[in-house]
Every structure is written in structure tokens, then in C-alpha cells.
Fold:
Amino acid sequence: MALALIHHPVVDKNGKTIAGAVTNLDLHDIARAAKTYGVEPFYVVTPLEDQQHLVTEIIDHWVTGVGARYNPDRRDALALIRLQPSLQAALEDVRARWQAQPQTVVTSARMAESDLGWDGLRRLAADDRPVLLVFGTAWGLAPELIQAADYRLAPIVGRNGYNHLSVRSAVSIILDRMFTGCAGDEG
Amino acid sequence: MALALIHHPVVDKNGKTIAGAVTNLDLHDIARAAKTYGVEPFYVVTPLEDQQHLVTEIIDHWVTGVGARYNPDRRDALALIRLQPSLQAALEDVRARWQAQPQTVVTSARMAESDLGWDGLRRLAADDRPVLLVFGTAWGLAPELIQAADYRLAPIVGRNGYNHLSVRSAVSIILDRMFTGCAGDEG
Structure:
């Protein structure tokens, strides 16, 4: 099971396709969640060279630089990150690692026509074929990425119709629901 | 049900009691999760005056300033924040709002002696008495806060013993487990 955070193509608040900026805490929070739930690699996808440099600097600092000695737990999480220029390139990497065709699952807070629920997601996680779980930054994945995916995950529904979680929260909740979400045990 | 993010007293990586700095994205992410799951107020607790100013500036920008017009969804989330100088003051506020004695639940990734599991937390959420869910910044809540609480929540256990989620992720997962975590429905 692998995870991708897409910075292009995503949409802005008006639905226009843009390339989003990399947010430092996205890398940290999502890497820590991925490490917690045993999901790797965590692909950070951006075609922009300056943003690729930024990602590389952050990884270097925490994985081999001063940060690695200061906080080895953070090193173990950020070591899961792989920089890729496109979703296509990330998919190629999954294919090469697993020697199998990946199944793609896209996520969106405003998924209009979802075709995968939580039980289905848990079944996919237990499948032999690799799964790539795809998240968008900014106002979400561009429509063509959503249409091209194998599965469209149901949005996270809270208690009152408000559906504006951060991507950091959404990743955390989805991984928890996928792997341990139904934990009813006491303590 | 209310939530508090404590910046003092918390501990640093060596276990020494400190006052943590306010992180902008903590306020945004946790307010958005609180709004999603219908939890309020979200108390941001810091005794430091400069940090209180920072919190007030962030709230003002998003709730009544330029940010409110730019992103009304963000306004609705950040409007749940109440600044308090201490956990004690937050508890007084809960008492005054609900006209009842709050039950406090503390959280920690390294909770040594937890006495509340996920079923128990769901029962508390359904209780008539108000509940204040307490999270720490930096390396977690100071021991005296953990000892003084009514309940100590079990830590989030992932799949491999790695227990270093961000506080933003931990809040999101705990609220989801509390209110909708066992959702097994398809779609």
C-alpha cells in the first residue's frame, strides 16, 4: 500500500487547474501517519523544480542531516518520502516495486460519484495487488485524475455536513479507518 | 463536548516542563476537525502574552477580517476557538456554559496507565455531563495534568509500534473514532 500527495494537477477554489505549493507540515504529518499505519512509499508529486528542491531539502535535513540526530523518530517517517514529477511516474514506481499493476484510489471531500466505501477500502488493503491512495492539495485533485482512477473513495462524513478537513487530517482518518478504525477494544 | 490544546504546562523531549509555541496550522487543522465532528469550543490554552496576541490575530483575520470573506468555511471553523490562559480557566468556562461539572479526558501517545478505551470514550460522548478532551503540544502534557484528569485515554496504536503522530493527526483520528470511527457502511 502506497500513498501519493499531488501538487499538480489540482484545482483552486474556482475549479481552475493549478500547481499547488508544497507545505512543510504536509510532509511531516503525512509521513508520520504513513509510518504509523505501515504505508509506503509516500510519494510527494510536483513537476515544479523549485518545489522539488524544497522537498529534497526537507528530506535531507530530517533523514541524513541535523534533524536526523535531533529526532530519529522523525527521520524514520520522512525516510518514507519519494519525490516524483507526476502521478504517472509514481505509478511506474509502484509497478516496478511490486512487479504488479497498481490499483488507484482517489479521494476528495466533494466526491460526487464515489464507488468505494470503507469496507471496500479495507478489502483492497488486504488484496495482493498494490494500492496507491491518491490525495490532492489546494482545493483537491483535478477532475481528469478522479475520472482516470480505478476507485473513487467516499468522502469522510462528519456530524453536520461540514466537509472541509485539512488534507493532513483526511489522510490520518482514512488510514485509521482502513487499518484500525473499528477498534472497539477497551484500552 | 469541548476540546483543549495545551501549550503550558507541556514537556520537551527531555521531559522538562515548558511553554510551547503556538503553531498556526494546529489552530486551522484542529478547528476544522472540531467543526466536522461538532465539538466546541476549541480552547487554545497559553499563558504567554505574545502567544495570546498571535492567537487573537489569527482568529481576527479568519473570523472577522479579510480571511472571512476569502474563505467562509475557514471562518466557521476558526470561530470555534476560545483563547484561555490555563486549563483551569477553560474548565471554568465549560462549567459556566453547561452549568455542570466537566469530565476531563487527557491524551498522550505515551500514556503509561490508560483507564479509558474507545468504547468508554463513545459512552462519555453520549453522557449528559460535558466532556473536555485535552491535548498537549510539544512532547505532550505535563505529568501533573495527566494525573489530575478524570480519565486517561488509551494511545492510538498503529500497525508497528510507531507512536509519533502529530497532534493534528491525533485529534482528527480520536474525534473520528469517537463519533463515526466504526462506520462500516459502503459509501
